[in-house]
Every structure is written in structure tokens, then in C-alpha cells.
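Q: How do we represent a protein-ligand complex in a form that can be generated cell by cell?
A: Start from the inputs.
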Amino acid sequence: MTEEIEVLLELIEDVLDKPKKVYNSKHQYGYDCPNCMDIKGLDKGDNKGNLEINLNKFIFHCWGCGVSGPLGRLFDDYGTKAQKKVYNLIKPEELKQEEKKKVKLRLPEGFTTFKDSNPRFIPHIEAMRYLTSRGITDEIIKKFKIGYTVNGDFSYRIIVPSYNSENVLNYYVARAWVPNKMKYKNPTVPKDEIIFGENNINWKKDVYLCEGVFDSFFLPNPIVMLGKKMSKLLFETLYMKAEGNIIICTDGDAFIDGVKLYHELNGGRLYNKIKIIKLPNDKDVCDLRGQIDEYYYEIK
Ligand SMILES: [Zn+2]
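Then emit the C-alpha cells for the protein with zinc ion bound:
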């Protein structure tokens, strides 16, 4: 065993206690999972060692609750400030380089909010006309910090920014309001690595799952999937954090996708907490304008 690994193992032990499983040859170690303890309300480990850490790849995965990610995240979530600092010093050089490469996302060139733009500027008028035609009010524009740009790669698009739980920009949706452009253009960040609008989600209340950002404006406590399929990250986050019901709100023509998702989600600690609505074929979630109560559908 190299000295680096010994130091790392000691540091991990400080955070997670002694490993319950040791596979030195694979550099793999199993600890009691703090997230499982939270879920089950235990103040001591269960001796199962379900949380496996691999020190070749610097990743962790729990066979009990399914949490996984880069090792650094364990220190972020469960370590002290000092332990985090030590980990960042002793982690391998390649990891440090990789993290540096991840450039911070910025709003597209020329982004302006409507509040800060001249209401007589033609693009401002056109963009507002488009938003109004989709039922989007001034209140919604303000709440979701919606803006637009007429410059650069995202010109003549409405921009809906997304912030993570620390209020750092993690994504945006760019919707063209002129007809001769592709409807949507995405930033370079892969959409399955972020949770859209995470800063606005109240995990203690019922959450409403929908496909697109423009649907989410009309739902209370919405979660946008950015497509018909749910990312692994969102699935795991829902599983860990959702405390209320999860209501699936797919467009009328995508009900089958919604039912599939219902069955995927309806298990474990989420069992019996999943609900689904069924819209007429020609109706979208945004047509509802919040009237969802009458569309609940019971799956037998
Ligand atoms: Zn776990």
C-alpha cells in the first residue's frame, strides 16, 4: 500500500469510521453509509459497509440508498472544514487538473433582464409578445429571472437561467422567439449533470415533475426534467430529498412516458407517494394554467 493511500484511508476513517469491508488489492473499501443512517434515523452504523469507496477512481457508491459521486462530495457533505481542506491538498494531481478545466458557466453574451432593457426596443417588444402569447406574466418573468439577448450565439432568444442550491448558475434554456431558428439551443453543460432551478425547489412540499421549462412556470414547486426521460442524478436526488408527494405532469401526448416514470419512481421510500395527471391528447401542461386538481389519474 502506498503512503498516499494510507493517509487517505486515515482521513476517510475520521469521517466515516472504520471500514467494514476491505479489498486492499482493488483499493476498494466499504463503510457504513451516513445517508442510509439519516434515512433510517440511526445514530450508529449498521455494520453492513454498503458505502463502497474506490481509491483507484476516487468515487463512492452506496448499495443501500444509491448515492454515488466523486469522493470529494463525501467530504463536502459529511466532513468538517478542516477535513475538506486536507482532502483537497492530498488528492491526486489529475483530479485537481480536471476540476480546474471545469469552467464556470456564464449567462450568454448580451443577456439582459426585461426590467433593465428599453421597453421600446423592437426585440424587447417581440420577446414580450412571445412570452405573453404563452401566458407568461410579468410576475413569472420576475420570479424566474427571465431575460433575453440579441448578441452572439444565443441572439434573439429568451433566456431562462437555472441556479443550483447554492444559487450558482448551472444551466439555462434559450428559446428562440423568431420562427426561422431552431427552437432551443443548449449551453455546453450536459443537462443530465444538473438539476434545473434547484434553488427554487422546496423538498419538504409536494413537487411537480414536468418536461419543459415553459411548463414549469404554471406549476407550484416544479422540477423540470429537460426532456421526457429522467436523469440518473435527478432520480437519485428525488429519492434522497423528496419528502412530500411527487406529481408527474407530462403533456397529453406523452402520458405513456409518464406512466413509465411512475413505475420507475414508485418504490422504496417513495412507494405510494407518486401521483400522475392525465391530460387530453391535445393539451400541454402549460395550457392548464395551474388547474391540475381535476386531472389526477389513478394507476391500478
Ligand atoms: Zn447509503
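The pocket of zinc ion is lined by residues 33, 35-36, 50-51, 62, 64-65, 67 (CB under 6 Å). The mean pLDDT is 91.
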